[in-house]
Amino acid sequence: MSGQDPEEFGAEILSEKSRMMAGLPPYDMDEQLLPREPRSPWCCLAWTLVIGTVNCLLFLLNVLLMLVIFTVVLLPTIVVVYFGFQCHSQVLHSSARYCKSILDDNSSSALIILGFVIMSPLLVGAMAIYCSLARRLQLLVCFQPFSLALYKGGHCCHPREGGLCCARGCNTHLKAWV
Q: How far apart (Å, rounded) are the C-alpha atoms in residues 34 and 111?
């Protein structure tokens, strides 16, 4: 063990490794994360209300988008289960013509079962569509933290993300030494 060469085990000489490392990134003193100036209590309250309102509107937009997607995708299940329950004699027993001529209790039960069986894959599909659309539109990135209300000079968008809410063109390059 002691007679073996360290090169055989994949160890590198320190000077060779230090030459291969990239230099430190450029560090701009203007963009340092220095302590920021706190806002006055009234200004903090006003900014908290603005940020809270924007976050509530974004939440309602997400819920509306989810509601539309789930309604469209689950429409076949809703229709099948509705007709199954409407025409079954033990549940609603409608006097509609299609219930008397086409659907009896067995076929109504089959519709109810079919509707609940196809609901699971359609729920997964609807959730996948919503997640894909929310990721593509970057809706979840637009939520603002309430810490922006405490200090002056905070950015309303996240570095590395360029969603719809960050269209103002804030600086997307984050410079920091690690």
A: 65
| 22 contacts: CB under 8 Å, gap ≥ 6 | none
* Residues in CB range of 141: below 8 A, 6 or more apart: 158, 161, 163, 165, 166
| Tens digit of each residue's pLDDT (9 = 90 or more) over 110-139 | 999 999 999 999 999 999 999 999 889 888
Q: In sequence order, what are the residues at sequence separation of 6 or more whose Cβ sits closer than 8 angstroms to the Cβ of residue 87? A: 93, 94, 96, 98, 99, 103, 107, 108, 111
Nearest C-alpha neighbor of 104 from the set 113, 114, 93: 93
Q: What is the pTM of this model?
A: 0.60
